[in-house]
Amino acid sequence: MWNDPVNLMNYVEWVFHSYFAYPREQAHRLMLAVHQDGKAVVATGSREKIEFDVQAMHNYGLWATMQRSEEG
Asked: Phi/psi class of residue 61: alpha, beta or left (left: φ > 0; alpha: ψ in -120 to 50)?
């Protein structure tokens, strides 16, 4: 997830809570990470799942991309 100049922090937090079903505290921490660091990993999983999640974030008007993890 990438920070953007358009969406309000409370909206981003609401999306994380609503879509990913994160507890409010976790959604808040992730939103702050995006806001302060410019980006944050908000989901992991199979390529198909993450492609679906990225499209969902776009539908909410948020900036999201997927990236292969740096394992091993």
From this structure: left
